Amino acid sequence: MKIYDFKVKDIENNEVSLDRYKGKVLLIVNGATGCGFTPQYDGLEALYEKYKDKGFEILDFPSNQFLAQAPGTNDEIAGFCKLNFGVSFDQFSKIDVNGKDAEPLYTYLKSSIDETRNEGTVGFLAKVKDYIMGIGENDIKWNFTKFLIDKEGNVVARFAPNIKPEEIDEHIAKLL
Question: Thioredoxin domain: from which residue to which, for each copy (predicted)?
Fold first, then answer.
């Protein structure tokens, strides 16, 4: 199975087959409009502007699963992102990224590659916290988790929410 086998709903609730992105490098993000990481939309838009003419796309899937930090309708989310951050990359309908109602695309992404974890005390404490909160090993931990997909549709990297878009730049450039 490849990423191109999935169909999702765009921000206007129209079905979109991801095969339309064949041959492109993708960065898939679970965004949120009311999160401490929301300013990352600026960095995401900068990456998009820098590489969109070279075959790069960003796919933003808002999720309200983390402390209800993506409230509002799809239209409100799109308007907020456009007005405050000039977002011009593709946005999709609000989804769940974890649990029984998780978007199948995200179930696939999570099973494709693990999030890099720190070892030692920090890693152990993170695992204990995840266990207490009912978060599985590969579950999305917070808003703005990022998945990098190569031109063949392979998931090649997963970046934690605290990794800023500009820190991903070199990885994108290598794939283009």
Answer: 1-176
Residue 128's Cβ-side half-sphere holds a number of Cα atoms within 13 Å equal to 7
Q: What was the pLDDT predicted at 120? A: 36
Residue 120: give its domain's CATH number: 3.40.30.10
The β-bridge relationship of strands 7-9 and 155-159 is unpaired
Of the pLDDT bands very low, low, confident and very high (cuts 50, 70, 90), residue 43 is very high
**For the chain, what is the domain count?**
1
Whose tokens are 């450039």? That residue is 173
Which residue spans within the chain are E strands per DSSP? 7-9, 15-17, 25-29, 56-60, 90-91, 146-149, 155-159
Task: Look up the domain containing 148 and give its range.
Answer: 3-175
Find the catalytic residue in 2, 10, 35, 117.
35
**Above pLDDT 90, what percent of the chain?**
76
Q: Is 35 a catalytic residue?
A: yes
